[in-house]
Amino acid sequence: MTDLTVDLDDSTVYFAGAFLQGFAIVNCQRVTLTRLRADFISPPFTHVQLTAVDPLARRLSYTVLPHWSDPVAFNGLAQSAAPTGPLTLWAMAFRNGDIVPGTSRMGVTQPILEGALSLVKNNVPWVQGPTLSTLQAGDTVVVFVRGGQATISVEGGDAITVSDTTIYGSSTQAILFNSTSHAVAERVRVMPRREGLIATNAGGIIFVNCGADDHVRNSFVSRSLDDALAMYETDVATVAQQIGQRQLTVDRVAFGRFPNGTKVNFVDPASGIELSGATILSQQPPDSVPPVFGGAVTVTFDTDLPRLGPKFGMARADPASRGAGSSIEENVVSDVLFGRGVYATGNMGLTVGHNEIGHTSDAGIGISQNSNILTFVVSPTPPAHDLVIRSNVVRGSLGPMASGAGSEIAVGAIMVATTNATNDFPASSPNTNILIERNIVLGSGRTGIWVNEVAGGAIRDNVIRGSGQHPELPLNGVDPQTRTGLLQDFTQALVVHNSRNLEVRDNVTNSNPVGDDEGKDPPRDRRD
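Given the sequence above, the corresponding structure tokens read:
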């Protein structure tokens, strides 16, 4: 459709269930969806009261709370409800409205037996006996199902706006924009329903594979279970084999498309460095054939290629296909229970400015390139170029309720980093021209500003007060040498590693703790 406004006049739309798209706007031009609230008759989460804990068996006994369903109602959903793949069950423990310190989201085995939640047995510290023993009868446990599709989904197209909208939950993201240009999310609120403790089971307002001039502004996200606001680019494919000077066999990343005429670069999985590439002349199967998820494609280019090994990433090279001119500005994030306040990577020409970000379990603002092909959910990404992080206020990131989950994305309130194919920080500088200026960082649990692997740019005129406030946070998934270095970093307000031509000046640091008001989250409900 083109040139259409859908104005729901402040209606509330109640969807029966949460695992299909609520609203889908696909390949449209100049379409606006505005003035609505979205909720669910059967939300993808419920709340129960903890009655007993068996730390050795990793079992939580519960009783159902009034006005909430028994989590046994979620049994069988993994097989039947989501066309996008299996659904997973999780639990989080709350006390007096906040996450129990030291805990995080815990996998729940299926099926759920009436009155008992059996936790998935793994090595993360928050499902071990000592941490589980800190849970108490009377705590509230939120049980949620993650998977399916966003409440509002925008796929392709140009000049799509979602405005003046409130979303009270989602089985994944509240709003997902995918491969869209000139799109705007404005005056959007993502928050829990009145009696609830969580909003979305994954992210808040998310842009993936942005075109040019996409914007999130004047919006509010509270209590998401993944990144609150994000704009990021993924590789469109990974190299399987170089079969000629101008020819490759590649595997798609998900349903990634790269029409003939697309200029692409290549990303070294060991260093994260982006190599200049070439323009696609032809491919087999042809781009006119609907893509197979993760399918193999033989691609021919217009010029000789650099020497490429298996697992090199293939990414779009045109800035207009990597978010040029886009922004995340004038937003409020009050509480991210598992994730980052703002996440970006792979962009060319993104501005993150004038946002207020409260408690987050991971970085408050994280520019985090990932070259590790972990799962179909975590796609490899190219590095970031020409980014501005300016005049943001970041309060209380990384503690005291943070789990320290995903340590490589939880080392600083504002951070820039690359992790390679072995999940280590490489000694390279793939991210270029990054400007971090005039930000205020208050009460960070770890380093205030932590920058790694940057070539060019500046860190200047920032104020960091009260960093390293929570040395007790667990540090997971890193080797002993990296662990030793990070623990030393966490005692410092500003850290720079593996970077060159980076101007660092006129930053004010103070190790004193922040005052009572300065370290608090922004208000959770901004209804004005």
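DSSP finds three helices and 41 strands in the chain. Try to locate this feature in the token string yourself.
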